[in-house]
Design a protein that fits this description.
By secondary structure, the chain is an alpha+beta fold. The chain is built from 10 helices and 20 strands. It has helices at residues 3-13, 83-93, 146-158, 172-177, 203-218, 227-245, 247-264, 268-281, 300-304, 311-324; strands at 20-21, 24-27, 32-35, 40-42, 46-47, 50-51, 59-63, 68-75, 97-105, 108-117, 120-128, 134-142, 160-161, 183-190, 193-200, 331-334, 339-344, 352-356, 362-368, 390-392. The strands form 5 sheets. It has an 8-stranded antiparallel sheet, sandwiched between helices. The protein has a 5-stranded antiparallel sheet with strand order 18-19-17-16-20. The protein has a 3-stranded antiparallel sheet with strand order 2-3-13. It is globular and about 65 Å long.
């Protein structure tokens, strides 16, 4: 069955409108967010990233280059009795063959199904929203394309966040396949301080799952005009997943390192930022790509565990720690230089990277080199051309 025919089935069951571009979208009314891969488009009204939805009215997004479609629909209890019922009744309405399972995501019961409808195949997700509503998410491809689009579909579903308080937490797909249920203690050393924290036994495996998943999506955009947007999303998705896994570790580090800086430094923010930067500069340098199809990005749980890492893993880890302490930070990357750095917004001398804000003003961020033992604002002269650097603004 062609995607057009599959669309027609959904149109008969639901409704449809006219086309505009939409990639990262959120709904303020229903309080959910989707950081979907670049290239989707939708008929629904989207303004400044916000999508405007109505109860029990679905929206379909189609990808411009891949035979993949996405349906999202806020569901009320007037029509569906529960989160589970939202999924099962929708599958019945589509006359789909499906199998589904219950899992816990962000302390709530959610339901994931793999389904087939004629020659279309994909995944359906039902999750609770605020005000006793549910969100139905369907992502599918033509049957002959499903295997090749599998990771892309998984990444699309995993980009969902159900509630602003859950923004920087693992997504639903990785939570289904790698459920967290067994805490594990971890110790690591920053400067002369031993920091103790708690992660889950599955976190390292799950974090690597996300790295591999998102790298497979990123490779689809090589030589595409959206490649830099896709690259930035790659870092955002890893950041969002790892932040929740390392939240306890970062909090304990802040309680010790940042607290010491406040009491013992005239510029505690700079002192803290330099301590974190110096910490990762001492990591073992290691690239993890055993074959060309692998990402050389070390997942951030492995970084903490001291298993060696490259520049972009270190840069993202520094930004995560700084942001957990309330400092503004993002990473910059350069395909031309095959390198990445971190940044921080502080009033201190040194080389900076300038970004333009939405109101037209600019803001300068100190650049941080993570592989040489230098201070903030010191970068290699041969990498000083700002036009060759691209920002990955973090959530």
């Amino acid at each position: 069955m062609t995607r057009h025919k599959l669309f027609m089935i959904f149109i008969c069951l639901f409704s449809f409108h006219s086309l505009i571009s939409a990639e990262s979208i959120y709904s303020k009314n229903y309080d959910f967010y989707l950081d979907i891969p670049e290239g989707y488009s939708t008929s629904q009204l989207v303004k400044n990233g916000q999508i405007f939805l109505k109860d029990d009215v679905p929206v379909i997004l189609s990808h411009q280059n891949l035979p993949v479609s996405l349906l999202l629909k806020p569901c009320t209890e007037k029509k569906y009795k529960s989160t589970e019922n939202t999924l099962t009744e929708s599958m019945k309405a589509l006359k789909a063959e499906y199998e589904y399972s219950e899992f816990i995501w962000n302390d709530a019961k959610c339901y994931l199904a793999q389904f087939k409808i004629n020659e279309g195949e994909g995944f359906a997700l039902s999750v609770p929203l605020k005000d006793k509503k549910n969100l139905l998410l369907l992502c599918w491809a033509d049957e002959q394309s499903f295997e090749g689009c599998f990771n892309f579909i998984c990444s699309t579903i995993n980009s969902l966040c159900n509630g602003t308080e859950n923004y920087n937490k693992p997504g639903p797909f990785v939570s289904f396949y790698c459920p967290r249920n067994k805490p594990k203690a971890i110790d690591f050393k920053i400067d002369s301080n031993i920091i103790s924290g708690t992660i889950d036994e599955i976190d390292e495996e799950a974090a690597q799952f996300v790295v591999d998943l998102e790298f497979s999506v990123l490779t689809l955009y090589v030589n595409h005009n959206l490649v830099f947007d896709a690259w930035s999303r790659f870092y955002r998705m890893i950041y969002r997943d790892s932040f929740g896994r390392l939240e306890d570790c970062m909090q304990n580090a802040n309680d010790k390192i940042y607290a010491d800086a406040i009491f013992n430094s005239k510029n505690p923010e700079l002192k803290y930022a330099q301590t974190i930067l110096s910490w990762v500069q001492g990591f073992e340098y290691k690239r993890n790509n055993e074959k060309a199809s692998d990402s050389d990005f070390t997942n951030l749980i492995s970084c903490i565990a001291g298993k060696g890492c490259d520049c972009d893993s270190r840069s993202l880890l520094v930004s995560m720690f700084l942001r957990s302490a309330g400092l503004e930070s993002f990473i910059i990357y350069s395909p031309d230089y095959s390198h990445a750095m971190t940044t921080v917004y502080l009033d201190a001398p040194g080389q900076s990277f300038t970004i333009q804000l939405s109101d037209g003003s600019t803001k300068d961020f100190l650049m941080g080199e993570t592989t040489d033992k230098v201070t903030w604002g010191m970068i290699p002269q041969q990498m000083a051309d700002r036009s060759k650097w691209h920002p990955a603004i973090l959530p």
